[in-house]
Amino acid sequence: MSAPSRIAARFAALRAEGRAGLVTFVTAGDPDAATSLAILRGLPAAGADVIELGMPFTDPMADGPAIQAAGLRALKAGATLRRTLDLVTAFRQEDQSTPIILMGYYNPIYSFGVDRFLTAALEAGVDGLIVVDLPPEEDAELCLPALAKGVSFIRLATPTTDDRRLPAVLANTSGFVYYVSITGITGAGSAEAGDIAAAVARLRRHTDLPVAVGFGINSPERAAAVARVADAAVVGSAIVSRIAAGLDGAGMPGPGLVEDVLGFVRRLADGVREARRV
């Protein structure tokens, strides 16, 4: 299955089921390659409909302490962009249907080489990219080459993206739109359900793409509240924090870490799946 069709097929299936999806974020290589792969492989069965995989970077300016720490743990354990792609390749050996979105910053991709990266990403089984520090004015750098090769480019919209700016943000967006429900860094707080509903309604007046909402969703209850009004709820910092909580004093994975993380994802998924039945 090709990259764009995996994303489209997943959201079509969610619409057919009459429910929203759960998008889970984890950092590639956190806390080490083997544990990261075990978590990644377990996410679909735990209820993740789409997976965002963070590309570790030394200066993640949009991320809060939890994801910053995850990136540093991964880098310390030897994570690289090449190894991130290898992780996707290993995941695809067992799962050909769950969309994987690489999320991060442009510097590692630029250093890797855009054409080389896009070719390797497609070969690995990557479906889309979220690159938070490339605005629409820089679409020629990565967005347009990605679209030309068949890799979706998911753009972020925020509470400060007004109606004048929104057309530029949406112009080359594909796959889905990621609505950042708060101003600030990841894990910094949460938005009111009414504000999210109004924001999603406004986005839908401008695009037919699915709308996923993230930032500040840290419990099954908050995930359910988002799932009632959006096409997907995105949970990142809360999952990454569960990984950190399962490390021992030396920073090594403790017994039961993978099971605990996946158990938390199951509870999030239950909240999302039950949201529209209440």
Sequence-ordered SSE layout with sheet pairings:
Elements (H helix, E strand, L loop, with lengths): L2 H15 L3 E7 L5 H14 L3 E5 L10 H12 L4 H12 L7 E5 L1 H7 L1 H11 L3 E4 L11 H7 L2 E2 L2 E2 L8 H5 L6 E4 L12 H14 L4 E4 L5 H8 L4 E4 L1 H9 L11 H18 L4
Parallel strand pairs: 1-2, 1-9, 2-3, 3-4, 4-5, 6-7, 7-8, 8-9
Helix pairs in contact: 2-4, 2-12, 4-6, 10-12, 11-12
Number of alpha- plus pi-helical segments: 12
Radius of gyration, in angstroms, nearest whole number = 17 Å
Instruction: Report the average pLDDT across residues.
Output: 93
The CATH topology: TIM Barrel
What is the domain total for the residues?
1
Look at the structure and name the CATH superfamily: Aldolase class I
Beta-strand portion reads 5-15%
The sequence of SSEs as H and E is: HEHEHHEHHEHEEHEHEHEHH
Oligomer: single chain
- Shape annotation: globular
Per DSSP E runs of 2 or more residues, the count of β-strands stands at: 9
Q: Could you give the distance between the termini?
A: 35 Å
Task: Describe the structure in your own words.
This protein is of the alpha/beta class. It has one domain: Aldolase class I (TIM Barrel), CATH 3.20.20. Helices cover about 45% and strands about 15% of the residues. A 9-stranded parallel sheet has the order 5-4-3-2-1-9-8-7-6. β8, α10 and β9 form a beta-alpha-beta unit. About 50% of the residues are buried.
